[in-house]
Amino acid sequence: MDKGTMKQFQEVNRIMIDRFHELEPPEILVLDIDSSDSPTYGDQHGGSYNLHYGEII
After folding, report:
1. Percent helix, strand and coil across the chain, each rounded to 5?
2. φ/ψ of residue 18, rounded to 5
3. pLDDT of residue 16
4. Beta carbons of 40 and 56 less than 8 angstroms apart
5. For the segment 5-44, what is each residue's pLDDT rounded down to a tens digit?
6. Quick check: helix, strand or coil at residue 50?
7. Rg of the chain over CA atoms, in angstroms?
8. How far apart are CA 51 and CA 40, in angstroms?
9. What pLDDT is recorded for position 47?
10. Which of 49, 48, 52 is CA-nearest to residue 35?
11. 37: which residues sit within 8 A by CB, 6+ positions away?
């Protein structure tokens, strides 16, 4: 990756961070934490691991 491309990526990153900081924070934040299976693409290592039970199901 050349320096010009890197500068463009840095500029896009700066713009995204600035826009994020302009957002109003939500009144509440809900975290949906459960032990459901999270499907993965293909045959990814650990895709069938269930953190709640601590094992591969």
Report:
1. 35, 5, 60
2. -60, -45
3. 96
4. no
5. 999 999 999 999 999 999 998 899 888 776 666 667 667 6
6. strand
7. 19
8. 15
9. 67
10. 52
11. 48, 50, 57
